Structure formats: structure tokens, C-alpha cells
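Technical annex B. To support the medicinal chemistry partners, we prepared a structural model of the target in complex with nicotinamide-adenine-dinucleotide, based solely on the information shown next.
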Amino acid sequence: MAVIGFIGLGHMGGPMSANLVKAGHEVRGFDLSSEALAKAEQHGVNAVGSVPEAVSGVDAVITMLPGGQQLLQCYDEALPAADPGTLFIDSSTVDVADARRAHELAGIAGFGSLDAPVSGGTAGAEAGTLTFMVGGAEEDFARAEPLLEPMARKVIHCGGPGNGQVAKMCNNLILGASMIAVSEAFVLGERLGLDHQAFYDVASISTGQCWSLTTNCPVPGLVETSRANHDYQPGFAAALMLKDLKLAVSAAEQSGTNTEVGRLAAELYQRFNDEGGGGYDFGAIIKLVREHSKPLQETEEAKEA
Ligand code: NAD
């Protein structure tokens, strides 16, 4: 069994570290929030008071932080304090350029490192069924695989440094765009008199089928697993979807890639966040579609005129 330093014990890192403890690993956890630390302690994590304490004398360090800035700051503190041979695994979702910079810093300090962002949300973190998309050297991937296994349904090596983040970003471009499309389809259908259940029964077995429809349907009452049934409490918050879409847009700009649907999806999630929706599940974007549609009476009058 390994000794693992775990930094960032929030909505995702909390349950992920708990699953490592359950699998028999010793976990030394650190978080700036005393609340998060106390919660992790209840699940058997040894809470420590600083980044250097979390990373010295461990086999591997896993970070699960809000973004690239926090990651790079954390590595500044962690790399000088770690023992030779420590493997650095970052599971936060960050910009590809930040991920590659983190690899570079770890390499300069003599450590192996991986970017290993996840998909599956808080439910997947709790159940230990996350998908890990991993970028980095083959030998580091081989060392990391058994450590990630208790948190994972699937661990996929996506190539060299940063490629895990590339895969994550591209996946979430599909997810954000498909949730908007599913929401627009439901609202268009309902305004033209189509019953939600009837549309679901058709689309869920037709070519419109996708995760945003059949697992996290934006209309409540149709799919058991949907956050719409819980007043859109996340789940995967719209603010995080916006963050991921912005990463995709920025990467598209840097690489000169024409991703117009991705850009529009980012604009719509930005508008939803600006209007106060950021704390709700990303499926709540259906409210934006409804709120920005004309009143039905108005469209009838326009037809008559
Ligand atoms: P969160 O805000 O709940 O957790 C982040 C934790 O990091 C917080 O507890 C915060 O106190 C801590 N932190 C921040 N800076 C720190 C520092 N310098 N040192 C130590 N601790 C620090 O966020 P989350 O939902 O757990 O998400 C974490 C990462 O996972 C993000 O990059 C997010 O994009 C990604 N992610 C989230 C989900 C999801 O559904 N929540 C799904 C996939 C990926």
C-alpha cells in the first residue's frame, strides 16, 4: 500500500481521498479550508497543516484544485519539499498550457508527473467510478494506474504531457453543446405542443440520444439520475461548465481551430452565469432557453399581423 499526499479536499478531492483510504492507502491531506480538512479526517485522511507536510515522505502526490493558478502555486511549494522518486499526479481541470508548465516544473525538479483530469462528477467521485484521462510518460502512467484504480471506472492513457487535459476539454465541449441542444429541443417541442415524455421516448432511442438527454435530462421527472429532479442542485455546476468551455475556446484560439459551436456554447453559459445560474447544475441552462424565448402570445400575434 502506498503513502499518498492529497491536496485539495473539496467536492471532488474529499470523496476521492476517502476512496483511497478505503482501498488501504495512507493519505495525508491538505486543504486551505479547515471545513474540508475536518470532513476528510472523518473519512480516515490524516489532516496536515501545509503543502510541504503533505508531500514529504510520500510515494505520490495527487492535486485536485480549482484551476491552473492554484496548481502552479502549489507545485512551487511542493516540489522543493518532496522526496526523490515521488510521482506528481494532477487531477484538476486546468488549461493545457498550465498543465504542460506543471509537467515542465516537475521535470526540472527531477520528478515524474501526469495530468489526469476526470469526468464523472461528484457522484463518480463518491462511487469510485471516475474516468481518468491521463497525459504523460508511459512509465509514470504505469506507476499511477494502481493508485488511481480505487477512484476509477476507467483510466485511459491519452498520450504525452497535457493530453489528458486536451481530452477532457474536447469531451466537455461536446457535453456543453449537447446540453444546450437538448434544452432547445425540449423547449421548442413544448412550445409547439409536444409532450415531454413523448419527445423523450422518441429522442432517447433515436439519433438525438446522448448523455445530456438520457443521464442528466434538463427536464425533471423523466430520468432518475438527473439533477433537474433536485431543483438543479449540482452535480456539475454551470460555473464549472463555463470554466471548461472557456478552456476549450482559449485552446481553439491558440491553435487556430474553428470551433464555432464551442464558442457559442461558452457565450450562452457565460450569459447564464451572469444571470445568476452559475451555482446550479449545468442542465439548468434550459431556464435560459425558456427565459429568452418570446411569450407564446406575442408569436401568435406576430403570425396574425
Ligand atoms: P472545490 O472548490 O470543491 O475544491 C477545491 C478545493 O481546493 C477547495 O476545498 C479549496 O479550499 C482547495 N484549495 C484551493 N487552493 C488551495 C491551495 N492552494 N492549497 C490547498 N487547497 C486549496 O472544487 P471541486 O468541485 O472539488 O473541483 C476540483 C477540480 O475538479 C476543478 O479543477 C474542477 O474543474 C474539476 N472537476 C470538478 C467536477 C465536479 O463535478 N465538481 C467534475 C470534474 C472535474
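Notes passed to the chemistry partners:
The mean pLDDT is 96.
The longest strand covers residues 152-159.
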